[in-house]
Amino acid sequence: VLAADAADAEAWCALGDALHAGGGLDDARRAYAAAVALDERAFPAWWGLGCVQARRGEHALAVQALEQAVA
């Protein structure tokens, strides 16, 4: 899907979810960041980004992302 449309925020979020589930935190963080850059209202991407940041020990960033998710 991303090869066909790199501007698809939902596809970036889905990629982030798959990478996160597989333990690829750095790659998941980049995918979620791409999703929110394309759609700043993408709740699932902000949520995923916050969860990844929390797992990486980036607690202040995690709080910011999760606050954005519920904004």
In short, what is this structure?
The protein has four helices and no strands. It has 71 residues and is mostly helical.
The outline comes out as: flat
Number of helices: 4
Strand content: under 5%
SSE series: HHHH
- Strands, count: 0
- Structural Rg: 11 Å
Termini, distance in Å?
A: 28 Å
Helix content range: over 70%
- Low-confidence stretches are none
The helix-and-strand class reads: mainly alpha
Description:
This protein is mainly alpha-helical. It is built from four helices and no strands. The chain has helices at residues 9-21, 25-38, 43-55, 59-70. Helix 1 packs antiparallel against helix 2, helix 1 runs parallel beside helix 3 (43-55) and helix 3 packs antiparallel against helix 4 (59-70). The mean pLDDT is 92.
Provide tags for this entry.
0% strand; 71 residues
Topology:
Layout: H1 9-21, H2 25-38, H3 43-55, H4 59-70
